[in-house]
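Usage

Read records sequentially. Each one opens with the input sequence:
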Amino acid sequence: MLYEQIRQNKRRTVYVLIGFVLLVLAIGAAIGYVFFNSSVAGLLMALVIAVVYSAIMIGNSTNVVMSMNHGHEIISADQAPELWHIVEDMALVARVPMPRVFIIDDPSPNAFATGNDPQHAAVAATSGILQMLNREELEGVIGHEMTHVRNYDIRLQTIALALSAAISLLVNIGMNSFWWGGGRRDRDDDDNDGGYLQIIMFIFSIMLVILGPLAASIAQMALSRNREYLADAGSVELTRNPQGLISALQKISGGEPMQAADSSSASLYITDPFKNKRSFAHLFDTHPPVNDRIERLRKM
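and closes with the structure output:
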C-alpha cells in the first residue's frame, strides 16, 4: 500500500510542478494585462524573472537556505561526531557524495536537506534533535533526508522556493505600478472593444494577482507533502529499520515550535517546524499528518 502511494506521489509531483510554472506565467500575463496593457509583456517578464530566480537559487541554494535558517557548518567530525558519522554512513548506503553538514542552534527537534543535486547537497539538524534522539532514531531521520538528496527532491524544493519568490516579486511590481500611476487600461479601447468580455478579463486578472501568492503557497506545500511518504520509505530502505524513524517522528512531532526557522523554508523540514494546527482541508499543511506517516511505516 505504501509503495502504491509512492507511485501516486511521483505522478502528483510532476502535475504540481507543471501547475506551479503555469501559475507563474498566468500571473505575469494578468499583471501585464491589468497594469501594462499587454499580456505578452507580462508573460515575458514573468518568464525572465522565473528563470533568473531559479538560476540564482540553483547556483547558490545551500548557502541561501542555510543563511535563512541560521545554520552554521561543521567541517570535521570532531565538532559533532555522532551526526557527522551518521550522515557519512547514510550517504555511503545511499551511494551519494558526503553532503555538507550544518547545525541550527534551536531547541526544537527538526532536520532538513537542501541543495541543487547530490554533488552540492547539505543536511542540517537542530541542536534539539541531537539532544532528543538516540542513534537509531537519528539514523532514521538522516536516512529520510538522504533520500531527498538521492531522489533530487532538494532540486524540486529549490525550484519551488524560487518560483514562489518570483510570484511575490511579480505581484510587487504590479502593485507598485498601480500606486505610481500604472494600471490604467486605455478607456477608448474599453469603450470600443469594451463589452463584458474585457470587464470579466479585468476582474479575473485582478483576482489572479491577489490570490496568486496564496495559490503558490498551496502548490509549494502540496509538492512537499507528496515527497514525504517517499522519503520515509527511502529511510527504511537505507536503515532497514522502520522503528527508528517511527520513534523519531513520534518524538519530533511533540516538540516545541522552532524559533530560527524561515517560514518560506518550512516545507523542507522533516516535520512542520512551526507545529501549526491543521488548516482547512489540509491545503496549508506543509507535511502529511505524522500519524498517517507512522501508520504507513508500520505496514512496511
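Summary fields computed downstream for this record:
- The CA atoms of residues 177 and 183 lie 7 Å apart.
- The longest helix spans residues 195-239.
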